[in-house]
Amino acid sequence: MRIHDVRTRRSADDFPRSEHLAWKVAQVAADPVAVPADTEAMVINRVIDNAAVSAASLTRRPVTTARAQAMAHPNSFKGAKVFGVEGDYSPEWAAWANGVAVRELDFHDTFLAAEYSHPGDNIAALVAVAQHLGIGGADLIRGLATAYEIQVDLVKGISLHEFKIDHVAHLGPSVAAGLGTMLRLDPEVIYQAVGQALHLTTATRQSRKGLISSWKAFAPAFAGKIAIEAVDRAMRGEGAPAPIWEGEDGVIAWLLGGPERTYQVPLPEAGEPKRAILDTYTKEHSAEYQSQAPIDLARRLRERIGDLEQIATIVLHTSHHTHYVIGTGSGDPQKFDPDASRETLDHSLPYIFAVALQDGTWHHERSYAPERAHRPDTVELWHKISTVEDAEWTRRYHSNDPAEKAFGARAEVTLKSGEVIIDELAVADAHPLGARPFERKQYIGKFTELADGVVTETEQHRFLSAVEALPELQAGALGALNITVAPLVLDKAPTIPPGIF
Length: 501
Description:
By secondary structure, the protein is an alpha+beta fold. The chain folds into 2 domains: 2-279, Orthogonal Bundle (2-methylcitrate dehydratase PrpD), CATH 1.10.4100.10; 289-425, CATH 3.30.1330.120. It is 44% helix and 8% strand. The strands form 2 sheets. Strands 4-3-5-6 form a 4-stranded mixed sheet. Strands 1-2 form a two-stranded antiparallel sheet. Strand 5 and strand 6 form a beta hairpin. The N and C termini lie far apart (46 Å). It is an enzyme of class 4 (lyase). Pathway: Carbohydrate metabolism; tricarboxylic acid cycle; isocitrate from oxaloacetate: step 1/2; Organic acid metabolism; propanoate degradation. InterPro entries: 2-Methylcitrate_Dehydratase (IPR053420), MmgE/PrpD_sf (IPR036148), MmgE/PrpD_sf_1 (IPR042183), MmgE/PrpD_sf_2 (IPR042188), MmgE_PrpD (IPR005656), MmgE_PrpD_C (IPR045337), MmgE_PrpD_N (IPR045336). It comes from Mycobacterium rhizamassiliense. This is 2-methylcitrate dehydratase.
């Protein structure tokens, strides 16, 4: 890997295009380096993972809305698939619908460093374009390896949340770069597409603050859709604002750290394999990633505590990010509101820890049910829980050493008797360094569990057979990555009011 210094440049500066970060990203995307076997295997795992969480969210309202919008854009000549239904649809709208299905439950993969990310958000966009253009499985894998690489590298080097910019600003460029690799585009085209995608996908973090709405699920799908359109325009010869990151009126100058700030972004050298997907990790529990280890910690602690009525207070010592994003450092009263949206409760560590402590488990629907959030004993326990930032947990969060990088917490449980019970957990059980790391068996298990009652066993088996054979799927065969369900399943979805389309 090579570290690239990225900072604002004046328009009058001699700043050749070869030094633009967007050009360097394009060079990585255009590099025909082979995909390592372990990267390929993990790509397959994440396609399975996305299908699992999409099956679980299929009849939820935001997913139903996005699906209805996509189905209003059929494509009879060519087209992409929309998860759950038959037919061919415009690829950018299929990517939109499938991206919302993946993101709705906050239940797929994650990578945390200087910024937050869910790199699996790249998959829906690349699969839709691959289906539409008749791309084969090997090229899809190549594209996804690039998309993960670029997103992870940007997340390592550039913090967006520090300046209240939403993390999908790294997703637009990664989708554009991944599409560039998959379609074997020239660096010039990829460069312009990356610039357009970044320019159009910067937004504030209010989508993840306060009263969090369904837009949290739509935002990454929007970035994917925009990136597809950007690549289409670039392929037709249209350009982008440049230099998009470094320009005098560019992203760094006005949205991030300003002219005095230099960012260091790692990117692979020419001929260096793209392995960043191996640095990412999926979720065993449907909740914000920084709550994964605390959920496992709560399940372990409940045996030591016994009668939860004897708890006086619980203080979770954790990282800066966890404290300020999903903890009491956020200052969001909504995080303690039983009437808050599912999206808000998903970002409330006190709520999540209380329910996991009481139930000893976590479920993507039951744990968020209104009657669950309103249980008087839960509300009482919930309000006894707070978070504090701990410098050591913050240091470990930002560590570049995978062996010590951590997203957990230390829980200090004070009982009414004055006794204090202390326990900590650095990484979730499902993390590669956790107690029960996810491997292919666990990904398939997650899929079959979440698809149960939604997808027939025959269709489950067909899909798994297809995705495990992804490297060998020929051009035009990627429609096999779609899963269809019986109309009776979709009938359970809420009725959506008509819109424009």
